[in-house]
Design brief:
The protein is an alpha+beta fold. Helices cover about 45% and strands about 30% of the residues. It has four helices and seven strands, in the order H-E-H-H-E-E-E-E-E-E-H. Strands 1-7-6-5-4-3-2 form a seven-stranded antiparallel beta sheet, with helices on one face.
Length: about 200
């Protein structure tokens, strides 16, 4: 009976060792598989980033967007609305998008007038009037917080049958920044829509 018990214990011990070795083999296989999977995921991500970077080199760094509309109002009236930053909160589409936007205007209407704004949803920035031609042109420089390069905002007004043709445009250059190049490519459509909303508000 003692020999039988010893053999049974030995069999149990051998079985336990075999199971432990099997489980250890499975764990090592899973670890190896996970490492291989992570390695391939890393390679794919690096390749994707490299491809996006190379593509960005062929995207334009400069941009230009404009929108025009005939406004049923005299030219002098439209000019006062767009040339004086004190009037912008009444029709500015970004003010409409964020009614809590805080705006500050320094100076009277004319070259050198500055408007600054703070907005949680629309971002922070400022613009300064660079050039005014009475009842014809208003041009300013735009600076956005977090961006090194500035843009130029321009209104060209023309007296036409039915009122005033107003053309609102923005242009600039994002430089070598690949993320900014993709962003501007995607943002053009939304920018035109915002311009359209602003021009409609000037009616």
């Amino acid at each position: 009976h003692l020999k039988i018990r010893l053999f049974q214990k030995k069999d149990i011990l051998v079985c336990f060792i075999k199971k432990s070795l099997f489980i250890n083999t499975i764990n090592q296989t899973l670890k190896s598989s996970n490492m291989k999977a992570l390695k391939w995921i890393g390679i794919v991500l690096i390749l994707l980033i490299a491809i996006l970077f190379v593509v960005s080199l062929f995207l334009p760094s400069d941009y230009y967007t404009e929108k025009s509309k005939v406004i049923d109002a005299p030219t002098w009236s439209v000019f006062e609305e767009v040339a004086d930053y004190n009037n912008w909160p009444k029709w500015d589409p970004w003010n409409a998008a964020d009614t809590n936007m805080q705006s500050t205007v320094v100076g009277e209407m004319g070259v050198g007038q500055v408007r600054s704004w703070v907005s949680e949803s629309q971002g922070n920035g400022s613009m300064e009037t660079l050039e005014l031609v009475e009842n014809e042109l208003s041009k300013g420089k735009l600076m956005f917080e977090g961006m090194d390069n500035h843009a130029f905002n321009k209104f060209v007004l023309e007296e036409v049958e039915g009122g005033t043709k107003a053309t609102w445009s923005i242009e600039g250059d994002v430089g070598f920044n690949p993320i900014a190049r993709y962003w501007m490519l995607l943002a053009k459509g939304q920018m035109k829509k915002s311009f359209e909303n602003g021009l409609n508000n000037l009616q």
